[in-house]
Design goal:
The complex is a heterodimer of chains A (about 375) and B (about 325). Chain A has about 375 residues and is an alpha/beta fold. Helix content of chain A is about 65%, strand content about 10%. Chain A contains 15 helices and five strands. In chain A, helix 11 crosses helix 12 and helix 11 packs antiparallel against helix 14. The longest helix of chain A has 30 residues. With about 325 residues, chain B is an alpha/beta fold. Helix content of chain B is about 40%, strand content about 25%. Chain B has eleven helices and 16 strands. Chain B is elongated, with a radius of gyration of 23 Å. Classes of the chains: A alpha/beta (about 375), B alpha/beta (about 325). At the A-B interface, helix 1 and helix 9 of A face helix 2, strand 6 and helix 3 of B.
Chain lengths: ~375, ~325
């Protein structure tokens, strides 16, 4: 590994990008177009919303409410929580996106007044899921109310009335305005960076083969690692510019609130860029025509990224095998990270899971890419 | 030529390359002493480029071994690459970069010392005749300038061994001659140069010529050695028409060892010219071919080559 050669390579690549209108267009116009096109919502259909229960009373009446949620089929009750802070923790780990809190005096209040509050908390980072889950919760409570109301009426011998109510008191966390853009747009940024980045580097090796310059290059003492790093450095810079551009549009144009810190954003974005560019480079090494490489890059990134990254279709709602598959769809980590940074203000420590995912991915890709290029015709 | 024990600049032993069933290079042995200009001559598809690519470490040989500048091509490919300059058959500088940018790139890749670089870049530019056009995009240059610039890039690091793969193909004659002048200037500095070409006349510019056909080394020697000793029989030039008809007739004449079309006439090799040459005109005339009296000529390398190749073909068909 020689710095002189590395710099010569990086400078050459930068010059060529600068002089190639096609590369520049992909680098700068594609993100602009995609931010405009993809910045809109998608309707969702969900089942088995992960739900936490914090039953402070644990009475027959409270357990009846819980049972109602379980048997509805819309929710899957994962965690039973024993204190309030547990809800926040479970939500941070994405173990649940909804929580039901039944107060300690639930059955007494209900018996005395015929009406008692139950708190429902939603993680609205994923606003579509939240809206639907909220609807389901209200449905569940309405059924329970109908039963309670009948029982209460019978025992108190009064007209069936508004009395006998559980009041669902929804509390929406993290995305208080339930604006779907807040949830969609950070995901869009991840998708765009994944597509554009792979497109850019997918051409870098095939261009040399197609123009016949590769034969000269591999006759020199430059190492495969120097070729790779030298070529990736300018694209890494472009990737960061694109990221800054997309994230800027997200914040200043779409008005998505940014609650995290810039350092976390920078580190995770840089990491994601390495993965994305590495994948494009790997494709480029394998496929010697520019057109072929560009199309493979599109195929490899487009479908998995749009369908399985969780940017529109929530991963929680996917069948288990598909959900397992999403772990190899690297943008899922960055989608999760971006949403958490934007909406929850999460730092690196909170995001260790997806960050570790990206790190492993980056290491694997760089390892593969550095070995893939052979200085042979 | 050199004292025994001196390491040859290029040494190939049993070098073989197969692409599937096709044998591009077939057990080729080659020894080139330091400071020689060796012409690598053969028709298209003879295996010239494949051999050069193997010597540069760009292709793995199927069998055999080679060393260049004292380094084993298979085991120390990077050391080989440090010590060679290579010009591929297809122009392969960066067309979207300027003359200066290309030179700077290869200077960086070859780690030319910064204090030497300015002088070497100036040398390369003046060698290519590109003074004043340092900032022109390379793709805008005409063929001859491109070739000389490519040579300039290939020798920036002063390699002791230079491989030039058909550097003059597609270049106009005047530029070809200039290019050979450059090659001889380099050779004067003890650079070993293996240059392939399919222009037979260029072989005359080389210290030694290696004739290659169908992957095999057919002959190697100085141009005069090849001309003088290789041809069996005497060479005559025959102006006649039609050429194709004449070839058919001559194939049936016992005293004709060989006949081949050279431009607008035939070259005929006869066992005994004094006796046989005069009767050719009448034999041809009997078959409706008009011919002038054959003229004895000195064989060119091309004549030698044609005969060697023909002999090789006969042997192949016999076995």
């Amino acid at each position: 590994m020689n710095l002189r050669r590395l710099l010569a390579m990086a400078l050459k690549e930068a010059l060529q990008i600068w002089r190639d209108p096609r590369s520049l267009a992909v680098a700068l116009l594609m993100p602009l177009m995609q931010m405009a096109i993809l910045g809109y919502g998608v309707s969702l259909d969900i089942k088995h919303v992960p739900l936490c229960i914090y039953d402070q009373e644990n009475s027959q009446a409270s357990r009846a409410v819980v049972e109602r949620f379980v048997s509805s089929g819309w929710f899957s009750v994962g965690h039973v929580i024993t204190r309030y802070s547990g809800i926040r923790r479970a939500m941070d780990r994405s173990e649940c996106i909804a929580a039901i809190v039944i107060p300690a005096n639930f059955s007494r209040t209900l018996a005395a007044t015929g009406s008692a509050p139950v708190q429902a908390i939603f993680d609205a980072t994923d606003v579509n899921t939240t809206n639907i889950a909220l609807g389901y919760a209200q449905g569940v409570v309405a059924q329970e109310n109908a039963d309670i109301s009948t029982q209460w009426d019978m025992s108190h011998d009064v007209q069936p009335s508004q009395a006998g109510q559980i009041e669902l008191d929804p509390s929406v966390w993290f995305n208080e305005t339930l604006d779907s853009r807040y949830f969609i747009i950070p995901g869009v940024v991840a998708v765009i960076l994944a597509l554009v980045g792979a497109q850019l580097t997918s051409l870098t090796i095939s261009r040399e083969w197609e123009r016949g310059t590769m034969e000269q290059l591999i006759s020199t003492p430059i190492s495969a690692l120097e070729v790779m790093l030298g070529k990736l450095i300018p694209y890494f810079a472009i990737g960061l510019v694109d990221a800054a551009f997309c994230l800027g549009v997200t914040i200043f144009w779409f008005g998505v609130p940014f609650r995290g810190d810039v350092a976390t954003l920078f580190v995770t974005t840089a990491l994601f860029n390495i993965v994305v560019l590495g994948i494009g480079y790997l494709i480029s090494v394998r496929i010697r025509s520019q057109l072929g490489a560009s199309q493979i890059a599109l195929m490899v990134t487009m479908l998995p990224t749009t369908l399985l990254s969780g940017y529109t279709f929530p991963i929680d709602q996917m069948p288990a095998p598909i959900r397992a598959l999403t772990y190899i769809v690297y943008p899922r980590y960055y989608v999760t990270i971006l949403r958490a940074i934007f909406l929850k203000g999460s730092g690196l420590a909170d995001l260790w899971g997806p960050v570790l995912g990206l790190c492993l991915y980056a290491a694997a890709i760089i390892w593969l890419a550095s070995r893939a290029f052979r200085k042979q015709l | 030529m050199n004292a025994t024990g001196d390491i040859p600049a290029v040494l190939a032993e049993g070098l073989t390359k197969k692409f599937g069933n096709f044998t591009a290079v077939d057990h080729l042995d080659l020894r080139i002493e330091k400071g020689q200009v060796v012409g690598f001559i053969g028709p298209n598809g003879a295996g010239k480029s494949t051999t050069i690519r193997m010597l540069c470490g760009l292709l793995m040989p199927t069998a055999g071994r080679a060393s260049v500048a004292g380094f084993d091509v298979g085991r120390e490919p990077e050391a080989v690459r440090e010590h060679i300059g290579y010009m591929s058959q297809k122009f392969s500088l960066y067309g979207d970069m300027t003359v200066r940018e290309n030179l700077r790139f290869f200077g960086g890749i070859y780690r030319v010392r910064r204090e030497d670089f300015v002088e070497r870049m100036r040398f390369a530019i003046s060698m290519a005749g590109l003074e004043g056009r340092e900032n022109a995009l390379v793709r805008t240059l005409a063929g001859g300038w491109k070739q000389r610039l490519a040579l300039g890039c290939a020798i920036l690091h002063r390699p002791p061994v230079l491989f030039l793969d058909e550097p003059t193909s597609g270049v106009e004659p005047e530029a070809r001659r200039q290019f050979w002048d450059l090659i001889h200037e380099l050779a004067a500095d003890r650079v070993t140069i293996l240059v392939s070409t399919h222009y037979m006349d260029e072989a005359e510019y080389c210290n030694r010529v290696a004739l290659i056909d169908r992957g095999k080394l057919v002959a190697m020697g100085t141009p005069s050695e090849l001309r003088g000793h290789r041809l069996s029989g005497e060479l005559y030039e025959l102006r006649c028409a039609p050429l194709g008809g004449a070839l058919k007739v001559l194939a049936g004449v016992p005293s004709v060892i060989e006949a081949a079309i050279f431009g607008d006439r035939l070259h005929v090799v006869l066992t005994d010219g004094e006796r046989n040459a005069p009767e050719l005109v009448s034999i041809l005339g009997d078959h409706g071919v008009q011919a002038e009296a054959p003229r004895r000529i000195t064989p060119s390398l091309e004549d030698v080559f044609v005969q060697l190749v023909a002999r090789g073909t006969e042997q192949r068909t016999m076995t």
